[in-house]
Amino acid sequence: MPLSDRRGRILAFIVDDYVDSATPVGSQALVARHALGLSSATVRNEMAALEDEGLITHPHTSAGRIPSNRGYRYYVSSLMEEHDLSQQERLTILHQFHQSARQLEEWVGLAVSVLANSVHNMALITQPRMVEVRLKQVQLVELSETRALLVVVTSDAAVHQQTLEFPVQVSQESLTRMGSRLNAEFGGKTVAEFAAKDAPEPLGAAEAVVVAAVVEMLMREQRAAVEAPVVEGVRELLRQPEYGDSDRMLDTLEAVDERKLREAIPSGAVGEADVAIIIGDENRAGPYQDMSFVLARYGPPSGAGGVLGILGPTRMAYGDTVAHVRYVADVLTQLMRNFYGD
Amino acid sequence: MPLSDRRGRILAFIVDDYVDSATPVGSQALVARHALGLSSATVRNEMAALEDEGLITHPHTSAGRIPSNRGYRYYVSSLMEEHDLSQQERLTILHQFHQSARQLEEWVGLAVSVLANSVHNMALITQPRMVEVRLKQVQLVELSETRALLVVVTSDAAVHQQTLEFPVQVSQESLTRMGSRLNAEFGGKTVAEFAAKDAPEPLGAAEAVVVAAVVEMLMREQRAAVEAPVVEGVRELLRQPEYGDSDRMLDTLEAVDERKLREAIPSGAVGEADVAIIIGDENRAGPYQDMSFVLARYGPPSGAGGVLGILGPTRMAYGDTVAHVRYVADVLTQLMRNFYGD
DNA sequence: GGTTAGCACTCTGAGCGGCTGAGTGCTAGA
DNA sequence: TCTAGCACTCAGCCGCTCAGAGTGCTAACC
Q: Which residues of B touch A104 (CB under 8 A)?
């Protein structure tokens, strides 16, 4: 059930102050900072009630209060005032984008680094993927008599490459011919259509190798979250007082390893529309119990897209973080839309 | 001038013990561990002499001795016994290579991670580069009416891509035609030859855009050390007692950032033949004053190659590290030689 | 009944002193 | 030239005390 207005305001102040100072906030400190027309004794009573509800705790008897995970959740869902970025902040971010080149890959790297710098936490982004990946073009380059480099371009403008070993000798001419034939036959198809299609004429040995490799590539690209996310600002994260102890720091460093994160990003929670906030143990994965994700989808709704956001301690300025994540996701989406002409 | 035999042996023991224990080694501890037929008092006298020579110091009056940078240098140059890896160690390493796929890019990543794991320090590797990069093949894929994706394959099997914006409308057919013409004309050429070549027939506007982009790509690939090195095992490094303090840890984390390292790897010190050891302040770059690099070149002498090695605290098992770096570099070189048929 | 002043109680963290153990440098004798 | 002995040093640990911040409870007040 919802909290009374006053109690809610007190919880919000506790969260705000704690986010700010990283030290437990006591009743006297609270009334001193926020002129809320109440004595510290009254605030203490309210705090005791909030503690009964499980929204705050204290680390030991004579310490101030800190929000529990449930407290953050309540704050985020019911108390937090969403605000947009100021004109100034927007311009700063846009400026960084416009200064840089117009390559998709660079945008991704730029977005994640802009995000990390503006909220002083670790930012992450997954590479953009099409919902349905289609084959755009195949190219084969001879490396030796029985070996060639296969380059595949997919509809999300990703380029994949692989070395192929042929059971027979091949020349650049035969490879070029094979490439043209495959392009004509399979260009624009998805993996599913690929598999469904019967070979109209029996494939040669070399061709079979190529087709198998292309299918494998498309499937890998299709599979969700195969690529490890790009991570930026780990040091911003580790500078937070939560990780002042070097053991904690090492553990956290392990948790934010790209390969670990690949499996653990709760991208299922990210809807089309808005920013998802996953607080502490809402994410089942072990090492993130005292951290929160703030994630958004980016990319045009029907096109290539991915997830970007922030990973930080649960003690995080959620309002500000949400605004930044949303804005950067929007900017990136807009860039991609212009790029793809979607 | 060289040390007396006995004094050298004592220095070597000090280095060995200190590398092992990370605590200053005292005279009594030394005689207890190494049965060298001398009393601790005699060892103390020798230690005082070694300190006069600037090869060891002590952090405070009543502490044992630790090697200075000059001490490590003397050890490495004159005292250290080089040993090869055991059969067992070699097999473990080879096994990891043979288990993995046979892509050049994967080898690079594998080498650096094998290295980091076997010496428990941070390993780094620069991407292989040809001494002379040649254009292998160009491909153009239409993205929209005035935009195309340019894919360039260079002689070191690297694939580069870039989006191009044309001042005129283009179709996939015209792009394909343009690609074939460029391949015929410029395939196999280096940048230098590229620039020297007069245009045999005046270039169209679209063609000029492509040529400019290709030249730019080749130059970037040609330029030394453009790509940031791949780094692995930062956590192994930070686990060393040197970085037990969280501030030190953050500083070090900053120092081993790939972009910082790109500028700072003392690759000039790496000769063709053997493993280079750069101790502490022998590297002028600031943040590495109390760290050492152990580096080797990899790749067939005339072909694509790079630098790989270890970055760790000056307190490092140099003998073992050198053996590992050398072996992994050899394995990688051999793999590349087989791959390129060189 | 909600609010507040007052008070006893609790707990952390900083500061201080003493002690121990490992180590040194020096001197004198073998 | 080596070694035994001795006085001296210093970091690190332990235990102690104390101040400060905070709590919960009770009784009085509006």
A: 163
